[in-house]
């Protein structure tokens, strides 16, 4: 009886789920599942069992003798290759009863997909033919659009935010969308979880904007103003526009010079303030406008000057909304840092972005919050990781020989030898394409970032000692490290 070993061919990067042909299970049938793969074994087109990454195993010993002579098929799933999904909802009809607004809106963005139930995921596609990235994208995108459209529509319908301020809803809509998708049975039945939902923008129909703007003008009585007062009305509107421009100019200047105010506590306070004051502010403005039309004999410019003081809540709300729209980069966080918490935030942003690129850009093996590597591959890297005569991953013994630095062992073979180990930070940088010198530099900075993120007294002391030795400030050190990561393609977004 000839031995058969079933394994993925890895013939195309575009294939995510690869199927074997049907075969009759015998005692010689074996399976090999490489790292970053899962295998789903079917018995007469029904899922029998799952095999995680493993060395060669005899199949019937895994599933039982009762499966011998059965018609089997195996699906190999590349678990780290499931792509991010671009989504978009258009032509959503919104009827906002609170503000008496009806309009058409659209939004789009992306989301990261995590497979949480491999059997469900594989079983959600037709069995037999290989499943490509495009097939998976289309199925998941269609499901997301079907579920997400009513969620987004409801967000717009049940809000006090006018059509002219919909961009302020982006954060809230993103949260509701992610919650709604992950609670839906259709998503659960796909065996996936929606992570890191982003919203690229909100798009409102231009005709609807114009119609609503005209309706508001009608409500304010602008169409009922007599010709004799037309010049005063125009002057008033010009003054209002001038006031608004002055306010926003002052906002821009103040925001540019302000300290970092986008930390979690401030964002919460800002959101609460905007929600609480928006209606009161609008009512104040409308009341003022109506009063002005009743008394055109007064000097409008003087009235506006006096009203500025009464419109301070509007100023604060506008300021907060503009701050929320700022693109806060890691560089600006560092440059504007005033205290320890500011540097912690900047360090955390850099750390998490580089780590995300390890996973999604460089496709490093990552499971259960750990970076892993095949032990044989690690030994090969350790042999080549040399700067001059100095090994980066070996220790020199008193007798002149070298011993490889032993990482934490995660998996062993039957003889107790390590097969999978944790990946040292310097190894991650080497696998990301850095030279040994660059990897050493990146690893040193990485450890300091981690110490900044965890504010213990011991870490503070070590950081200060390091800064003193280098004769640099915390700000200078972080900016230099950020620039290094950016140049090496390790920090790619803000």
Largest sheet: 6 strands, antiparallel
Helix content: 40-55%
Q: Ranges with pLDDT <50 over ≥5 residues?
A: 222-239, 255-264, 296-313, 315-326
Helix/strand-derived class? alpha+beta
Please tell me how large the radius of gyration is.
31 Å
Q: Kindly, what is the distance between the CA atoms of the first and last residues, rounded to a whole number of angstroms?
A: 59 Å
Shape: flat
Q: Count the helices. How many? A: 17
Average residue-wise pLDDT: 76
Number of strands: 20
Q: Which percent band covers the strand fraction?
A: 15-25%
Q: What is the count of distinct domains? A: 4
Describe this structure in words.
- This protein is α+β, with helices and mostly antiparallel strands.
- It folds into 4 domains: 4-80; 85-208, 2-Layer Sandwich (Tetrahydropterin Synthase, Chain A); 229-326, no CATH class; 331-487, no CATH class.
- Helices cover 49% and strands 22% of the residues.
- Strands 2, 3, 5, 6, 8 and 11 form a 6-stranded antiparallel beta sheet that branches. Strands 13-14-20-19 form a 4-stranded antiparallel beta sheet.
- α7 runs parallel beside α9, α8 (264-294) crosses α10 (312-325) and α12 runs parallel beside α17.
- The radius of gyration is 31 Å and the shape is flat.
